[in-house]
Write a structure and sequence with these properties.
By secondary structure, the protein is an all-alpha fold. α2 packs parallel to α4 and α3 runs antiparallel to α4.
Length: 111
């Protein structure tokens, strides 16, 4: 995310995309903190792992930016950023739904 924040200033990435990624990370981190306080364990999902791989691939490609070895890296970065956004939303929703289910289950048990 830090690299992406710097890429906004370079004009390689719009700020709204970085804001979406950053917002998702803040929300999920906050939910994890609440979950820990409530004694709830929510394991990492495949959605989040795919999101991380897509964001990392996109960030590296956008950092390279210029054609290298005949590859248009800027284009590669943009090809990966869209699925990264989709997985960011999906993994954030998946994590939130899992948290709510576990919280309800805990409250039903009365512990």
């Amino acid at each position: 995310l830090v690299a992406m924040i710097f890429m906004v200033e370079l004009g390689r990435l719009p700020a709204w995309i970085v804001c979406i990624f950053l917002s998702r990370e803040i929300i999920v981190t906050a939910l994890r903190g609440v979950a820990i306080d409530e004694g709830i364990v929510i394991p990492a999902s495949h959605w989040g792992k795919y999101k991380s791989a897509l964001i990392s691939t996109s960030a590296v490609a956008l950092l390279i930016h210029y054609p290298l070895f005949g590859i248009q890296w800027h284009l590669v970065g943009w090809v990966f950023i869209w699925p990264a956004l989709a997985f960011s939303f999906a993994s954030g929703i998946h994590y939130t739904v899992g948290f709510v289910k576990e919280l309800r289950k805990k409250n039903r048990k009365g512990t």
